[in-house]
Task: inverse folding
């Protein structure tokens, strides 16, 4: 039996949850038209739909919220956040926003428009959407190891630097508006990016004079992976690794609802405090988010974020966080259940294509597995596969994802080992019954972009 690492915290408040019957869950699915985002949270026992904003804040964060300065402009909470963010990332300009997609909406149009391309080690959903909303198109250059869920490699989130160079030369450096390094690489299964890979990517961008941006939602988990896995970093503090990693980029966009352990918040960082495009960032923020010293957040949110930036870097916490994923992965190994191995930083990504090899990507095996898990034990997970990818904006055809994953994104400081063991037992039951599921789902209605949040689905009969 794998050993579970004990929680480095005590629980001071509890929230009641209930375990529904299978019949209740099947009815909930029908009412939600098989979209996991449309299921009421009261009908969910363990919720791993996302780790974004679903975290439990600490006593220090709750205490800090009482100190929030709600001034419209120039509040002291804003300056407290600036001090923390500059200390950690070493960037000259910090812009708070209300979440990650707000950061993308504010920053990406500064560099991207029709005729431009953005290249990433893999885009996640909202980043891809905001590239396309700006009129640009997405290109991807993830390392080939990420495509094989059974291959155990330490940095499966890396950029394929050779492919990056090839894409730049094919499209022309002048047509590449931005390169995005996503850490950890969510679509690859929460897999980390090495410091060496970041250095190589930065060198390519410098040589071609292309802006390099970090999608920094899980910056702390990525830094901890570097400490644990990359030669020469075992004795380096995670905070120092973070600063060195970010020094290689020109900017970052961050959903602070992940590693900063808050329920709402985001950041934009610009390394050069004198960069002329900061004026455009401020203008966009004022138009879309609010005045730039609050960026769509309350003063109390800014205070919680300033504390959370440091709490997310606590190495005892990070060892427990990554150790929890390792525990779950080891249990899955014992049962012979396929997932993106080794386990990622923020969750388990089950390989739905190996659960249901007979179900084509056009019938969304990742969504099939999410539905079956909810039926079995009240676990809410989500597709990270072709269903999430959507349709090509130019041809209208269904895009085939690199992998067909079902993601269990684990909220921070919310669940205990008993919950994880129940989830693992449920996964085992679904694995054993996988042969009874013959067909997938069809979409009966979808919006033109980010469809997985709203689309209606129906089982394919026969």
Result:
């Amino acid at each position: 039996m794998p050993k579970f690492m004990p929680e480095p915290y005590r629980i001071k408040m509890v929230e009641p949850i209930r375990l529904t019957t299978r019949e209740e869950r099947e009815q909930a699915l029908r009412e939600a038209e098989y979209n996991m985002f449309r299921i009421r949270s009261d009908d969910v026992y363990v919720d791993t739909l996302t780790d974004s904003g679903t975290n439990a804040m600490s006593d220090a964060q709750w205490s800090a919220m009482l100190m929030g300065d709600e001034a419209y402009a120039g509040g002291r909470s804003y300056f407290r956040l600036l001090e923390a963010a500059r200390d950690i990332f070493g960037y000259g300009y910090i812009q708070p926003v209300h979440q990650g997609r707000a950061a993308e909406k504010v920053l990406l149009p500064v560099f991207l428009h029709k005729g431009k391309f953005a290249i990433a080690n893999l885009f996640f959903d909202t980043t891809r959407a905001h590239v396309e909303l700006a009129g640009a198109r997405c290109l991807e250059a993830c390392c080939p190891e990420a495509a094989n869920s059974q291959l155990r490699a330490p940095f499966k989130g890396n950029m394929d630097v050779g492919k990056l160079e090839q894409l730049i030369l094919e499209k022309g450096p002048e047509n590449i508006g931005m390169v995005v390094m996503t850490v950890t690489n969510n679509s690859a299964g929460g897999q980390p990016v090495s410091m060496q890979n970041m250095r190589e990517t930065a060198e390519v961008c410098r040589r071609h004079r292309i802006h390099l941006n970090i999608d920094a939602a899980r910056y702390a988990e990525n830094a901890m992976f570097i400490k644990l896995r990359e030669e020469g970093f075992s004795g380096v503090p995670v905070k120092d690794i973070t600063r060195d990693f970010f020094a290689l980029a020109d900017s970052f966009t961050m959903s602070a609802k992940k590693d900063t352990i808050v329920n709402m918040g985001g950041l934009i960082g610009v390394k050069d405090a004198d960069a002329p495009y900061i004026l455009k960032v401020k203008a966009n923020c004022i138009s879309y988010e609010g005045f730039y010293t609050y960026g769509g957040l309350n003063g109390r949110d800014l205070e919680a974020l300033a504390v959370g930036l440091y709490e997310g870097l606590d190495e005892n916490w990070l060892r427990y966080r990554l150790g929890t994923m390792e525990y779950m992965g080891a249990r899955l190994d014992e049962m012979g259940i396929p997932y993106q191995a080794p386990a990622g930083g923020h969750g388990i990504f089950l390989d739905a294509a190996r659960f249901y090899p007979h179900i084509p990507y056009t019938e969304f095996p990742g969504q099939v597995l999410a539905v079956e898990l909810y039926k079995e034990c009240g676990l809410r997970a989500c597709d990270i596969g072709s269903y999430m990818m959507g349709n090509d904006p130019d041809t209208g055809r269904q895009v085939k994802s690199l992998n067909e994953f079902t993601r269990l994104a684990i909220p921070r400081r919310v669940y205990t080992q008993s919950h994880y063991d129940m989830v693992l037992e449920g996964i085992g039951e679904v694995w054993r019954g996988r042969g009874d599921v013959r067909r997938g789902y069809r979409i009966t209605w979808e919006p033109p972009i980010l469809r997985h949040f709203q689309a209606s689905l129906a089982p394919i009969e026969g």
